[in-house]
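Researcher: Please predict.
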Amino acid sequence: MEIQIIEDFLPIKYQQDIINTVCYDPGFPWYKYHSTYNHNTVVADNVDPQILKQEGVVPTNKTKESPQFVHSFYNESNGSRSDWFAFMRTMNYFIPHNINNILRIKVNCMQKQPDYPEGFYNTIHTDTNRELPYAKDMKTLLYYPMDTDGDTYFFNKTIFDDDKSDIEIMKTVSPKSNRAVIFDSAQLHASSPPRISEWRFAVNFIFT
């Protein structure tokens, strides 16, 4: 389960264009979600356990969900969903992997939560579904355009591990300006909201 961290990932001009467009432009559209995961852990008891297993959701005693804002640039199921898709797709030219297919590009924004307990995290999840035939080939790139707090937590299990009873944190990565993180989409991970910074932005780029 290699986690690749790349500093100074994008040319400064492109990074600044992303910041100006995504982070600062008041006309950039955002859509509010009540949690970071499709099935809010508040109502997880009402979700088919088989769905949770397929999608790699693991609640723990340090799971505390957060609302977030999302802008979807592209989704494999629905195609381009944004006027800014071509702008963000340019990122694929800087990813040090041979890309066959782009599966999803979105950006998440979480607002400052000063009372969020330290050491807690949002729902542990994966970025794939174990039933997908190409699940083992999927990679996720997280890109942080700006310095903020709100670490990303990586865990020692994947969606293909049936026994997750001994799950534990194997690495944390802080959002640092122009930093990218690449990992297997099947790896369990979780975000956390900022407690000090006003906003936390993270681009999520999934590919095979």
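Model: Confidence is low (pLDDT under 50) at residues 39-47.
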